[in-house]
Amino acid sequence: MDGRLVAVKKLSLDQSQQGESEFLAEVRMITSIQHKNLVRLIGCCSDGAQRLLVYEYMKNRSLDLILYGKNDHQFLNWETRFQIILGIARGLQYLHEDSHLRIVHRDIKASNILLDDKFQPKIGDFGLARFFPEDQVYLSTNFAGTLGYTAPEYAIRGELSEKADIYSFGVLAWKLYERSSVIDLVDPKMREDGFVEKDVLRAIHAAFLCLQPHANLRPPMSEIVAILTRKGEMIRTPMKPAFTDRRRRKDEKLSWDTISEAFPSPLKSDSPSLPQSSH
């Protein structure tokens, strides 16, 4: 190597050859795409039963270690949180719409979002990703992904499309507003950080659009990016998300309380339970 730091992902083959399939899938996928919000593969190695993937080194590691780590010194201010949300959205827009191949990641979650030295996000781990023809829904008989981030139509019926990634993005975007295990419309620390209220509202609106229980109600990522960058209007009013948690602090005073009923608070945690459809 040339002396630079790298990250190495090690895959070991098992009797079912699942490791080999995952290795080949990830190499094929990551070498066919390139975007500033996707982790870059530097090289790979196959030696006996070992398979190594060599990626660019990400100084701030993965998003989950910061959001749910024991140390509070790496609190992400509003500007950084929004930068992460927007970067993930742009990465997904590229995979779904702008790449020469339509790609569904299938495992968008905090631990698969890597952060560089400036906290720019990059989507990683393409071991479960699939190529899809335009406007095609794939019926999967084997569940893959992470419960808690999974779209209802995929978790329950095995229907997989880019809409599943969009739902997972909504879950992840919402998690950036959590404070410990309590769900509020806005993390109290962000109010101390001088955030722009209208931008927070746009981010929440975009997240809830992505959390719609029916796949055809979720907008494409290009529309989400437009909303986040103020190039798109917040015209749609989201339906009640597929799973909700209505708990809020009694002393919470928000200037947008008038719309809180249209945007019930979703997801509480990473607990491994299937999302429940609303009635």
UniProtKB/TrEMBL annotation:
GO terms for molecular function: ATP binding; protein kinase activity. It is found in: Cell membrane. GO terms for cellular component: plasma membrane. Gene3D superfamilies: Phosphorylase Kinase, domain 1, Transferase(Phosphotransferase) domain 1. The keyword Glycosyltransferase does not apply. GO terms for biological process: defense response to oomycetes. Transmembrane segments: none annotated. Keywords: ATP-binding, Cell membrane, Glycoprotein, Kinase, Membrane, Nucleotide-binding, Receptor, Signal, Transferase, Transmembrane, Transmembrane helix. It is a single-pass type I membrane protein. Residues 1-254 form the Protein kinase domain. Its main location: membrane. In the C-terminal section; belongs to the protein kinase superfamily. Ser/Thr protein kinase family. This is Protein kinase domain-containing protein.
